[in-house]
Amino acid sequence: MEQTAPLTIAPQSALRSQNRLRQTRRRLANAGMWIGASLATIIALVPLLMILYYVTAQGLPALNADFFTKLPKPVGETGGGMAHAIVGSFILIGLASLIGLPLGVLGGIYLAEFGNNRFGWTVRFAADVLNGIPSIVIGIFVYAVAVRPVHHFSAMSGGLALGIMMIPTIMRTTEELVRLVPMSLREAALALGATRWRAVLKIVLGAAKGGVITGILLAIARIAGETAPLLFTAFGNRFFSVKLNEPMSSLPREIYTFAISPYEDWHQKAWGGSLVLVLIILVLSLVARYFTRGRYKAVR
Amino acid sequence: MSSFMTIGTLEPKNKGAKPIMQTAQNLEAAPTAAPSEAPTGTTAPVPSPTILSRPASASVENGRKPRTESQMNITAKVETRDLNLFYGPKQALKSINAQVAANAITALIGPSGCGKSTFLRCLNRMNDLIDNVKIKGDVTLDGENIYARGVDVVALRQRVGMVFQKPNPFPMSIFDNIAYGPRLQGIKHKQELRDLVEKCLHQAALWDEVKDDLKKSALALSGGQQQRLCIARALATKPEVLLMDEPASALDPISTLKIEELMRELKQQYTIVIVTHNMQQAARVSDRTGFFLLGELIEMDQSSQIFTDPCDKRTEDYITGRFG
Ligand SMILES: Nc1ncnc2c1ncn2[C@@H]1O[C@H](COP(=O)(O)OP(=O)(O)OP(=O)(O)O)[C@@H](O)[C@H]1O
Ligand SMILES: [Mg+2]
After folding, report:
1. B180/A189 Cβ within 8 A
2. In sequence order, which ranges of B80-189 are alpha helices (DSSP H)?
3. What are the residue boundaries of the structural domains of chain A, listed by start?
4. Distance from CA of A127 to the nearest CA of B (A)
5. What is the model's pLDDT at position A13?
6. Strands of B144-145's sheet, edge to edge?
7. Contact A194 B184 (CB under 8 A)
8. Judgement on whether residues B224 and B299 belong to the same structural domain of the protein
9. Which residue has better confidence, B31 or A203?
10. Is the pLDDT of residue B110 over 50?
11. How many domains does the structure of chain B reveal?
12. Pairwise CA distance, residues A82 & B230, whole Å
């Protein structure tokens, strides 16, 4: 008894004390990491929250029925709204989607399904480069090819500039997500007598749908606030216009014009426009979130 | 021999030539001329490129014929001649000469990695999808080389259906999963689709479990249920040949028995090839069995023969569990 007791206790206590030391160190490290990560998150969130707060506080008073339904009043008068810019923004986004969506999605599918060759590699590289080109450069390019030849600004050229910006984003996200779809699903469809394209369009794209839609919405959210490519394409318009071959106003562009004016009432309007823009992007992101929700379930 | 003779003479009438003859007679305004008239039947050219005449299935079923005779009398639905397959530099199939009997169940057995799935996937050109695969030799379906130039792979795969080793339901509803194949074939009528789906689910022994939620996602089913769904899905395209890669490996004994029952029932109309690791199952359901080893087809014969008196020592070792 006397001999066995210390033998059994000694190593245990030694183990325990060692353990305790390690445990404290581990706990400290753990706590440190946790605090660090939390701090970083909070710091990252601060600007976002401040922007949201500022834009809301300043912009909310400007929002009323007139803001959404009326045109700006002539200089010096108060009142009026930004109806032309809101409608313009939606039209421009629609035009851009008409170009960017089919090209981006189909291109992405092509890259994922048939792009394991030199051509695919080249396209992928080109898309990445295009993604990195500053938006003002795209604006100048479209100005040169679609505005100069016809001698006037147009909504169409603005849509083209934004659409070009959408292509690489949508193409690359679509490719990534289509690649994630397991081979066994393609095999199942082909074994039932589907052609390659039918299998891809219905089954593969169906499985990747959620993610692809998310990519599309985020691309739209990104171009919704673009000003630079519109400066020499859609230009801007003080009046209400839905004609595609005439200059068209847009929210970012109008925010710029109003914000640099010397009138207090116009500054208010600029904040109001900013708030509307932020809300549009927020809604798009939320909808995108909704579609990502089922993504892993769908892809398995 | 007498049974051979009778079945042999019956053969042309069972083949697809019948309706054509009927319309010809109708055109000549002779409606009373019986469709099963013997003289026309015998004069009609034998349309099927069978290796020998049809009696095979009868002899396969009673399985008491002397071996050489039974082997000679197979109606090969699918046949491979000197089939070699390479994955890059690696040879996965080595000069396979196999005959898959029509209206019978052929079991493929062999240790893991010996090429059973690879062989199966050759029969509906599923290996086309994999980069770096090279195939030499012939695979014929009803005498037609399926690797010949100009073969419609889509049509081929509608005739040769497949159930994969791992269940792979589409991420859609149970109903849409099964209706996928028929819809590809252009069936749009709602009631027709509904009936077909129900029939196939019954056949795959899944109907009772899912009849109330056909709209539910197929991914919500259990693994075994998913496999049965995949079987139902393959049946819905009405293939002539059904390739099944270990269809029962994820199933409980009761569903397994149901699937085996289904296979026996199906072989009246279909030709079935099944890969299995379960010797009892192979012995139980199959009419013929092929034994693969390291990419070679060691032997292929009537199951009764393989499981009682195999030709090759290696087959015997494998079957009796003395392998390697
Ligand atoms: N896509 C592929 N690329 C390269 N090698 C492959 C591929 N598929 C199979 N193989 C190889 O071919 C051989 C045969 O594989 P196969 O899947 O046909 O075996 P199996 O008999 O079905 O085995 P199991 O009983 O485990 O399913 C294996 O050695 C495997 O490694
Ligand atoms: Mg296998």
Report:
1. yes
2. 116-122, 153-159, 174-184
3. 4-62, 65-299
4. 25
5. 56
6. B90-101, B76-87, B133-141, B144-145
7. yes
8. yes
9. A203
10. yes
11. 2
12. 57
Read off the amino acid at residue A114: F
Cα A248 to Cα A239: distance, rounded to the nearest angstrom:
8
CA–CA distance, A159 with A267 (Å, rounded to integer): 27
A275, A63 Cβ separation under 8 angstroms: yes
Whether pLDDT at B56 is above 70: no
B171 has a chain A CB within 8 A of its CB = yes
Name the residue in chain A with its Cα closest to that of B162.
A191
Give yes or no for A297 touching B (CB within 8 A): yes
What residues pair up with B228 in beta bridges, in sequence order?
none
Beta bridge partners of B299: B291
Tokens of B278: 């379960």
Q: Which ligand is nearest the CA of B276, by number?
A: 1
Residue type, B306: I
Mean pLDDT of chain B: 78
Is A36 in the B-facing interface, judged by CB distances under 8 Å?
no
Taking the centre of ligand 1 as the mean of its atom positions, its distance from the CA of residue B116, in whole angstroms, is: 8
Domain that holds residue B11: 2-72
Would an 8 Å CB–CB cutoff place A151 in contact with chain B? no
φ, ψ for residue B164 (rounded to 5)? -85, 165
Q: Are A167 and A127 in contact (CB under 8 A)?
A: yes
CB contact under 8 A, B170 and A203: yes
pLDDT greater at residue B55 or residue B80? B80
- What would the two tokens of residue B276 be? 């299995």
Gap from B229 CA to chain A (nearest CA, Å): 12
Q: Whose CA is nearest to atom 14 of ligand 1?
A: B115
The answer to whether residue B160 sits within a structural domain is yes
Q: Which two tokens stand for residue A225?
A: 């606030």
Q: What is the DSSP string of A217-251?
A: HHHHHHHHT--HHHHTTT---SS----TTS----H
The ipTM (two decimal places) reads: 0.73
Domain A65-299's class?
A: mainly alpha
Lowest mean pLDDT among A13-17, A156-160, A252-256, B77-81: A13-17
**Does B115 sit in the ligand 1 pocket, CB within 6 Å?**
yes
- Could you say which DSSP state residue A74 is in? P
